């Protein structure tokens, strides 16, 4: 056995061990120190962990036969492990980390919702039991219950991207407050902010309905903004579609955007607030693509680009017009 | 980048390039036995490098790292003519997959998984299916099959390695042969 296959074998043992008993903290600690020993350990682990988590999709093959009583059906297995600090946020393909679950691991009815959430600045993808995928943007809370007869998700706060596997027998319903979004199989994003709900349809058709009102159907390249009982439908340009989905890559895209609006966007992703101190600076328009979680880099860029005064503090980044105009 | 960012970048940007990376290594290195070890060495170097600065293009970074590794290795092995080093550009490289292609990839994933399952040895396959399709815990799998939990744990470990290998191979047209199980080296393409 060469050195590499030895490392790989060890990594597989670690994953299997922690898969056997996800709640065993001693195992987690030992694993963590093994990983810290060498990048070779870490990359071997990440590679195999990714493969093992991707295999969760196999649940889609589970025969959905309600007459079969043999085994109590359980929800998509929820692992109660605490995220390792070094892996925090790496959950895009490593679904187990994304799960902040309040359920215990015992024989749950399949309809019990699982809870998922992301902290500010994080982005995580979860695989649902039916093979669908949901990516949670920053500061998002969501519950999911995938059953044999229906698929239900509640968007409690924040924004998510849905890539839904087609299943005509099980409509996929997202509930956001009083609004419901019903689909069969499609891709779309949803952003909920208090009473507002923004829908961007990327593929297929989406039905948006406020309780007690007739439904609105949105198709590809359309966006719907629901406020109160009304829904405003607009057609997106390709450029606007890029802006609407750039967060999936962790980026903010601005196009003729005022600094005030840009600050609002950055503040969704960072604890360190971007504060634009005066109206003159606030109304400067900018464009470009920026890393959502790197507010300091953005501030330094506009400092050099516009000669603005930038002060970086512990809890905020303050941007103001220059005290003495040098230009 | 922080550890967490590097981990995410590695999983999202680098791992999907695995089939391409292995193709590149195979074209430029004759000893098949070295390929998986070299792939992991490239991964480790790339991981460390990305910790210093996030590479603009994962693909370009992976390939240049692989190229440097090939040069190091051939110097050490005193192999003089590796005429293919300049071949990096000649390799028909796909552009970075655009989001829609990634979704297509996600959709075909179930098929890849099924194909991968079919290549597992029977007992290992049974364990993985109960664990992942039925959603049983390892303990429940052991009970169902009347085997010890230690055996289940071992089979899961084998399954993990075989699945990872199968992902690389089923994802490309360059499958050289059926996957076979070789001792404790896991599944390897022959």
| Total number of strands of chain A | 18
Instruction: Please state roughly what percent of the residues of chain B sit in beta strands, choosing from under 5%, 5-15%, 15-25%, 25-35%, 35-45% or over 45%.
Output: under 5%
Q: Classify the oligomer.
A: heterodimer
| Low-pLDDT stretches of chain B | 80-104, 171-190
Percent helix among the residues of chain A?
A: 25-40%
Q: Main sheet of chain A?
A: 13 strands, mixed
What helical percentage do the residues of chain B reach? 55-70%
Distance between the termini of chain B: 38 Å
**Largest sheet entry of chain B:** 2 strands, antiparallel
Rg for CA atoms of chain A: 23 Å
Biggest β-sheet: strands ordered side by side in the sheet of chain B = 1-2
Which two chains share the most extensive interface?
A: A-B, 60 and 54 residues
Please state the overall shape of chain B, judged from the principal axes of the Cα atoms. Answer: elongated
Structural class of chain B: mainly alpha
Q: What is the string of helix and strand elements of chain A?
A: HHHEEEEEEEEEEEEEHEHEHEHEE
Architecture overview:
The complex is a heterodimer of chains A (327) and B (190). By secondary structure, chain A is of the alpha+beta class. Chain A is built from seven helices and 18 strands. In chain A, β8 and β9 (196-203) form a beta hairpin. In chain A, α1 packs across α3 and α2 packs across α3. Chain A is flat and about 65 Å long. Chain A starts with a helix and ends in a 7-residue tail after the last strand. Chain B has 190 residues and is mainly α. Chain B has helices at residues 3-14, 18-28, 35-52, 58-77, 99-118, 122-132, 138-145, 149-170, and strands spanning 179-181, 187-189. In chain B, strands 1-2 form a two-stranded antiparallel sheet. Chain B is elongated, with a radius of gyration of 19 Å. The model of chain B is unreliable at 80-104 and 171-190 (pLDDT under 50). The interface between A and B is large, with 60 and 54 residues.
């Amino acid at each position: 056995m060469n050195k590499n296959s030895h490392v790989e074998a060890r990594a597989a043992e670690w994953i299997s061990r922690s898969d056997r008993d996800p709640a065993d903290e001693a195992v987690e600690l030992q694993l963590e120190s093994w990983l810290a020993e060498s990048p070779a350990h870490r990359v071997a682990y990440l590679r195999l962990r990714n493969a093992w988590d991707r295999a969760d999709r196999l649940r889609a093959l589970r025969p959905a036969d309600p007459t079969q009583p043999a085994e109590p059906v359980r929800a998509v297995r929820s692992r109660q492990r605490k995220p390792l600090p070094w892996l925090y946020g790496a959950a895009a393909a490593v679904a187990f980390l994304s799960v902040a679950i309040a359920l215990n691991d015992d024989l749950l009815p399949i309809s019990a919702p699982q809870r998922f959430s992301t902290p500010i600045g994080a982005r995580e993808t979860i695989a649902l039991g039916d093979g669908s995928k949901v990516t949670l943007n920053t500061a998002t809370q969501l519950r999911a219950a995938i059953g044999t007869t229906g698929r239900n998700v509640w968007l409690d706060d924040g924004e998510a991207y849905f890539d839904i596997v087609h299943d005509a027998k099980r409509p996929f319903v997202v509930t956001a407050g009083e609004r419901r979004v019903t689909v069969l199989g499609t891709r779309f994003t949803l952003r909920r902010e208090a009473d507002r709900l923004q829908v961007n349809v990327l593929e297929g058709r989406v039905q948006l309905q406020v309780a007690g009102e007739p439904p609105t159907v949105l198709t590809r390249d359309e966006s719907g903004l629901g406020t109160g009982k009304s829904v405003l439908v607009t057609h997106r340009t390709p450029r606007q579609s890029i802006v609407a989905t750039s967060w999936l890559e962790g980026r903010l895209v601005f196009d003729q955007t005022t600094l005030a609006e840009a600050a609002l966007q950055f503040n969704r992703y960072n604890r360190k607030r971007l504060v634009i101190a005066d109206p003159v600076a606030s109304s400067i328009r900018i464009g470009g693509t920026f890393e959502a979680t790197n507010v300091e880099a953005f501030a330094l860029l506009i400092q050099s680009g516009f000669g603005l005064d930038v002060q970086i503090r512990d809890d905020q980044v303050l941007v103001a017009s220059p005290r003495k105009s040098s230009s | 980048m922080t550890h967490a960012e590097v981990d995410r970048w590695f999983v999202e940007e680098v791992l999907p390039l695995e089939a391409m990376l292995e193709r590149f290594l195979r074209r430029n290195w004759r000893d098949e036995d070295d390929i998986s070890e070299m792939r992991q060495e490239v991964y480790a170097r790339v991981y460390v490098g990305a910790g210093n600065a996030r590479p603009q293009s994962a693909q370009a970074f992976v390939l240049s790292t692989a190229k440097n590794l090939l040069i190091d290795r051939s110097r050490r092995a005193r192999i003089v003519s590796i005429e293919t080093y300049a071949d990096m550009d000649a390799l028909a490289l796909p552009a970075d997959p655009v989001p829609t292609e990634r979704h297509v990839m996600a959709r075909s994933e179930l098929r890849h998984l099924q194909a991968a399952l079919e290549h597992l040895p029977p007992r290992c396959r049974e364990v993985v299916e109960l664990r992942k399709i039925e959603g049983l815990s390892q303990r429940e799998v052991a009970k169902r099959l009347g085997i010890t939990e230690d055996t289940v744990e071992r089979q899961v470990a084998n399954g993990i390695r075989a699945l990872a290998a199968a992902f690389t191979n089923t994802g490309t047209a360059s499958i050289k042969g059926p996957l076979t199980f070789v001792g404790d080296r896991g599944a390897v393409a022959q």
